[in-house]
Design goal:
9 strands, 12 helices, nine-stranded mixed β-sheet, about 20% strand, about 300 residues
Length: about 300
């Protein structure tokens, strides 16, 4: 390492999370071209999403993977991706991300000094809990469900009759063990990886949220890199996103297989009944985020 310091990158997932490989690819490119090491930290070692974003904006961190939980303050339109039951499949989400959403979000974030290198996924979110199988929205009544610090997710959980409880990933498992919460929403991989099945063995495969995740760079830092480095990062962006999505999809599939082996109670209810209960969430946030135009474009796409 030729530099006198290391660059920093971080994310909230564990060491096996697909985010880790995505940031390691960035680190490998800048390390090879610039001769300065980039340290990739996982599991929130550098702080919460909000803390990492503040570090990135003030030049103390160079790259991160975040969600709308933190990035919505820079680009409120990001919240539109979190609307319940907006996407029908992963392929639909990927296509719309690449051709519609990422270009729109990139421009807004760049105005705030942030470069969106790759729009990835944070998991196709299902519901889980410790008390009972979920077959209908009525089964959600009264359950205390952990959510991200995301107002759309909180409103959706409340619309289903449950009580949203905002907790960090680190806090949520302990809260399950003590009964402070009954469950939450997670992608299958995260549900199994964090060990939630040990305390909450009822899994509802519903696909309520398709969480988008964003690999972002400090624009000031990006512009300080050599032309060669910038070019290689931009050229690698599509492959980084594709690999991360492939990894998440594969790991979710393996997690479902593990659930079956461990005799987790899995229900697959009618999505439409849940969608109808949560449609009240859409309008307030479309107005708030000025995303109606984007929603119209999404509906116009034939996928």
């Amino acid at each position: 390492m030729s530099g006198q310091y290391s660059w920093l990158a971080g994310h909230m997932g564990g060491p096996g999370n697909p985010y880790q490989r995505a940031l390691q690819t960035v680190a490998a490119i800048v390390g090879e071209c610039e001769g300065t090491e980039m340290i990739v930290s996982h599991s929130g070692t550098l702080g919460s999403e909000e803390e990492m974003l503040q570090m990135l904006l003030t030049g103390r961190q160079q790259a991160m993977v975040g969600t709308s939980a933190s990035l919505r303050r820079l680009c409120p339109e990001l919240l539109m991706c979190d609307l319940p039951f907006l996407f029908q499949s992963r392929p639909q989400f990927y296509l719309l991300s690449d051709h519609l959403l990422q270009p729109a979000y990139s421009n807004r974030l760049l105005e705030k000094g942030v470069r969106l290198l790759a729009m990835m996924e944070g998991g196709w979110r299902d519901l889980f809990n410790a008390r009972r199988p979920i077959h209908t929205p009525a089964d959600m009544g009264g359950l205390r469900m952990r959510t991200m610090d995301n107002p759309v997710h909180q409103a959706a959980i409340e619309a289903l009759g449950a009580v949203p409880v905002v907790l960090s990933t680190q806090e949520s498992y302990r809260a399950l063990q003590t009964g402070a919460i009954d469950g939450g929403d997670r992608a299958a991989y995260n549900y199994m990886d964090y060990g939630y099945q040990k305390a909450a063995p009822y899994y509802c495969k519903i696909g309520i949220f398709m969480v988008a995740s964003y690999l972002i760079l400090s624009e000031e830092w990006f512009q300080s890199l050599s032309q060669e480095t910038r070019g290689k990062l931009l050229s690698a962006a599509v492959a980084i996103a594709q690999r991360e999505r492939d990894d998440y999809c594969l790991m979710d599939g393996l997690a479902y297989e593990a659930m079956v082996r461990e005799n987790i109670t899995i229900t697959r209810p009618d999505r439409e009944a849940f969608r109808i209960k949560t449609e009240v969430v859409w309008e307030p946030f479309l107005v708030q985020t000025e995303s109606a135009g984007l929603l119209q474009q999404i509906k116009a796409w034939k996928v």
